[in-house]
Design a protein that fits this description.
Elements: E1 2-6, H1 16-31, E2 36-41, H2 45-48, E3 55-59, H3 67-70, H4 72-79, E4 84-87, E5 100-104, H5 108-111, H6 120-136, E6 139-142, H7 145-155, E7 162-164, H8 179-188, E8 195-198, H9 208-220, E9 228-232, H10 241-248, E10 255-259, H11 263-272, E11 275-278, H12 287-294, E12 299-302, H13 307-311, E13 317-319, H14 324-336, H15 338-352, H16 357-372
Length: 373
């Protein structure tokens, strides 16, 4: 088959979807020696990517959620003469009706539209594109059982049409690191004490405000833990309440913002964090806790959406994400119990090994072959 892949997010520097696309392309092209692949890319990734005999690239330069995505991208796809097209996110041209597969990573915008999706027009456009992509696809890939359930509820798609394929954790994540490099990263970001780590975007459903409130309670409690909270990710101007809460609680000297950081530095932070805290209200999969587990870090996570499904029963300690006091108590419990810390490290590392990008690529290739029948 001649298979197209929407690789406009192809990059390890993007958040979860970018990593998914990067690993999918990388593993598929190593695994599959029968099919030909056409990658539809934006700059600068287009210029960086090297073609091979069976992997070609096409420049699209169409942003997600844009008019160009619906018009010129559609024309580019039609000219490509594909047997199958894989849309790696729900953003597909609504008039593309040839055989396709679509991956649904989450339904966050359905449950937590946020400030960027405040207008009725944008919400209507989102629903139209999502439902059309699912309706037109021969098969739909959901990244968790929870996402599949949400997808069926929202789009009324038949259960048999949806295949659950988990994401993976790369080999670059591991519990052992270079001490000198770790110290260098600490100096770069002024990390001078034990610290809690959060990684990800700064959107409302990520629940950073409640994490910050929990951190304040932790510092004020009977033990008065003298720790730092390290928050990675790019500051979002739509959510000024993150920094505002830090200031209101007098935590400016205890909270560190790293901004977007290279993967190597991120791994060093995972490896050296006292604990990783994931307070999200909603996720489609939730890759960061698994990455932290693979790095041997105790994980605390919210008991919402797919997170318990992905993080496992004994591999993380769960809390109510809507209650800062419960978050604080869970963190306190881990910090005071070295045996619990070791249990979470061991169980987490073992659990994370169940998630493999190779398995993801193999199962995705099976979906492609099913579409051929």
């Amino acid at each position: 088959m001649r298979i197209g892949i929407d690789a406009r997010m192809y990059s390890t520097e993007f958040t979860g979807i970018g990593r998914y696309v990067y690993e999918l392309v990388r593993r598929l092209t190593a695994l599959d020696d029968k099919n030909e692949y056409v990658l539809f890319m934006n700059e600068p990734e287009y210029s960086k990517f090297e073609e091979s005999k069976r992997v070609k690239k096409v420049l699209v330069n169409a942003k997600h959620y844009s008019l160009k995505e619906q018009l010129s991208y559609l024309w580019t796809l039609r000219r490509a003469k594909l047997d199958l097209m894989h849309f790696t996110h729900f953003n597909a041209p609504i008039f593309y009706c040839k055989p396709s597969v679509v991956t649904i990573h989450d339904l966050t915008l359905s449950f937590f539209p946020g400030k960027k999706m405040s207008s009725a027009f944008y919400r209507a456009a989102y629903n139209l594109v999502l439902k059309t992509a699912v309706k037109n696809a021969k098969k739909v890939i959901a990244v968790s059982e929870n996402t599949k359930i949400d997808l069926i509820e929202i789009t009324k798609v038949a259960s048999a049409k949806v295949e659950v394929i988990y994401e993976g954790v790369g080999e670059e994540f591991g519990p052992r690191g270079d001490k000198e490099y770790q110290e260098e990263v600490h100096r770069k970001y002024s990390i001078s004490r034990n610290f809690l780590l959060y990684t990800g975007v700064w959107r409302g459903h990520k629940n950073l405000v409640n994490l910050i409130k929990a951190f304040a309670l932790l510092r004020e409690g009977p033990e008065a833990f003298d720790m730092q909270l390290v928050i990675t990710g790019e500051e979002d101007p739509y959510y000024p309440e993150v920094k505002r809460t830090v200031k209101e609680l007098g935590l400016e000297h205890h909270v560190i913002y790293t901004g977007m950081i290279p993967e190597k530095e991120l791994i060093a932070l995972y490896q050296t964090a006292t604990a990783y805290v994931f307070p999200s209200l909603y996720e489609g999969f939730g890759l960061p806790p698994l990455e932290a587990m693979r790095c041997g870090t105790p994980v605390l996570a919210s008991k919402s959406s797919c997170i318990p499904e992905i993080c496992g029963e004994a591999s993380a300690l769960y809390f109510d994400p809507y209650d800062p006091e419960d978050i604080s108590n869970a963190i306190r419990k881990v910090l005071l119990d070295e045996t619990l810390q070791e249990t979470l490290r061991e169980c987490g590392l073992k659990h994370s090994l169940k998630f493999s990008w190779e398995k993801m690529a193999e199962k995705t290739l099976e979906v492609y072959n099913e579409c051929k029948k």
